[in-house]
Structures are given as C-alpha cells and as structure tokens.
From TrEMBL:
Ranges annotated as spanning the membrane: none
Listed name of the protein: Short-chain dehydrogenase
SUPFAM superfamilies: NAD(P)-binding Rossmann-fold domains
InterPro entries recorded: NAD(P)-bd_dom_sf, SDR_fam
Organism per entry: [Bacillus] enclensis
Taxonomic lineage of the native organism: Bacteria, Bacillati, Bacillota, Bacilli, Bacillales
Length: 259
C-alpha cells in the first residue's frame, strides 16, 4: 500500500487500536474515531511520535443519530481524503432476549449496522468518484449462523457480512474494494462489554488481537472479500453451511451458555 489516510472507528481499544498501530507503522496517516477522547489523544501522540505520521482524532458516539454525518463533516472540513475506511466500532450483549435492555440493543443496531452503513455511504461515494478506495467492515464469525443468548448481536453481524459482500460486487467495477472481516472469539475488551465473562465461548481457542489484525492486514492486499482469521474459524464457518440450521443454532446456544 502507498501512503494513504485510513479512518478507523473504535480505535481506542482492541482490534481498532491494533489496526491503528499497523497502518501507522506502515507510514499511513490515520483518523481515529471512538468515544474515549483521552485515549485517542494519547494514541495519536504515540503514533505521531513513533511513526512520523499524522494522526487526527474525532471523538463521537456512533450510537447517536447524526454522529456519522458529523464525523464525515469534520473530516471534510479538515480537507482529509479517506482512502481506507475501517468500520470496526461495535459491541455485543449477552443474555436472554426478554431480560436484556432494549435500549442497549437499539444502540447496538445503531453502532453495528446504521453507523457502519452511513459511513460506508459517505466515504464510499467519494471513493467511487475517485475510482479507488478500500472499506473493511468488521463482522464476526457470528455472521454465519443465528446466536441464541446474543440474538441481536449475531443478527447485526449477519447484516454486516451480507451488506459488505453485496457492496463488494457493486463497487468492484468502480475500483473500490469492500471486505468483511470475520474474527472468532478474540481477546479484547469485547467480552466484558458484552457481559460474556461466564460464557463458554471465551474459555478456549481465543485468538490474540495481534494474530487477528496481522492476518487481516495481509489478506487486505489479496482481494479477498470475506476474511476469516484463524484456520479453526475458517473450518467452522465453512462446515456450518452443510449442516441443518436448527442443529447449528442449538450447538451455538450450548457454546454460549454460562459455565
Ligand atoms: N473480540 C471479539 O471476540 C470479536 C469477535 C468478532 C468480532 N468482533 C468485532 O470487532 C469489533 C471491535 O471489537 P473489539 O473486540 O476490539 O472490542 P473492544 O476492545 O470493546 O473495542 C470496541 C471499540 O468500539 C468502540 N465503540 C463502542 N461503542 C461505540 C460507540 N457508541 N461509538 C463509538 N465507538 C464505539 C470502542 O470505543 P469507545 O468505548 O472509546 O467508544 C472501542 O474502541 C466489533 O465490531 C466487534 O463486534 C469482536
């Protein structure tokens, strides 16, 4: 990749933080987006000091209506052209649907689906005009099947996968690459944010954030539309489609249940 400007949502921790280091290390300017302004400011200082790149900070809550538009306007006002968009911000919620808080689920749909779609539209349209650009949408292996006890989260990620594959097809002829990154369980702040501490899902086979981002970063140059880091995750995602969906759903519930 030549020197580019990369906008990363959810840059304050986990996968987004690791992507921010990776791109900056390779000499790319970054636009860091999340709610935690202090974390972003110290990250920007670290990246600029270590890698001699420009790191811009935009704090915003993507659960709020209009946040994506405000981010787009701030980027435009600074005269920044975004070459690569990493739609990474997102979160999950564990629990039986009648017991979880609907306000959290509505916020999740807003962050995982609505903001991702809006940012793809605003920045993607400009990429189409310029006939070049890359969008990486962070989905999950959750995208490949329903997820009892995290029903809304799995459904949001199914949207991200479907949306990204369709957009990849539409924009291929316009020179814009769209990809869906589908990590399996990864050791980040996600588990605590989703209240998953007791779930079996995170008890074994968890990948490190560096493993996930290293593999994703490499595959971004290989014109892959769906990127699934880890051989085990690829095998699971690939084999699930040959099994009866009801059986797979029961299996996912077992894996997700509290120990
Ligand atoms: N970890 C896993 O096992 C796993 C597996 C598959 C997919 N994923 C996906 O990977 C992505 C990154 O998650 P992670 O694992 O890196 O978790 P994480 O460490 O909790 O990071 C989540 C990031 O999203 C940001 N974010 C959350 N809500 C936001 C909001 N309302 N507005 C703006 N930014 C917001 C957070 O920043 P602030 O709190 O500062 O706003 C943070 O930077 C998510 O889309 C997640 O669904 C994770």
């Amino acid at each position: 990749m030549n020197n580019k400007t990369v906008l990363i949502t959810g840059a304050s921790s986990g996968i987004g933080l690791s992507f921010s280091h990776k791109f900056a290390q390779d000499g790319h300017d970054v636009v860091l987006v999340a709610r935690s302004k202090d974390k972003l400011l110290s990250l920007a200082e670290e990246l600029e000091g270590k890698y001699s790149v420009k790191a811009h900070v935009i704090d915003g809550d993507l659960a709020k209506t209009g946040a994506s538009n405000s981010i787009y306007e701030q980027v435009t006002a600074k005269g920044i052209e975004v070459d690569t968009l990493i739609n990474n911000a997102g979160f999950g919620l564990f629990g039986e649907f009648e017991q979880t808080e609907i306000s959290k689920e509505v916020d999740m749909i807003q962050v995982n689906i609505t903001a991702l779609t809006e940012l793809s539209k605003y920045f993607g349209k400009e990429m189409v005009k310029r006939k070049q650009g890359q969008i990486l949408n962070v989905a999950s292996t959750a995208a490949f099947q329903p997820g009892p006890l995290m029903a809304v989260y799995y459904a949001t990620k199914a949207y991200v996968l479907s949306f990204s594959e369709a957009l990849a097809n539409e924009w291929e002829s316009h020179g814009v690459e769209v990809m869906a990154l589908c990590p399996g369980a990864t050791s980040t702040g996600f588990k605590d944010a989703a209240d998953l501490q007791q779930s079996k899902l995170f008890q074994s086979g968890v990948m490190t954030v560096e493993e996930v981002v290293d593999e994703a970063y490499k595959k971004m140059t290989q014109k892959k539309v769906v990127i699934i880091p880890g051989a085990k995750n690829r095998l699971l995602a690939g084999s699930i489609r040959f099994l009866p969906r009801r059986m797979v759903t029961k299996f996912v519930r077992k894996v997700q249940e509290r120990i």
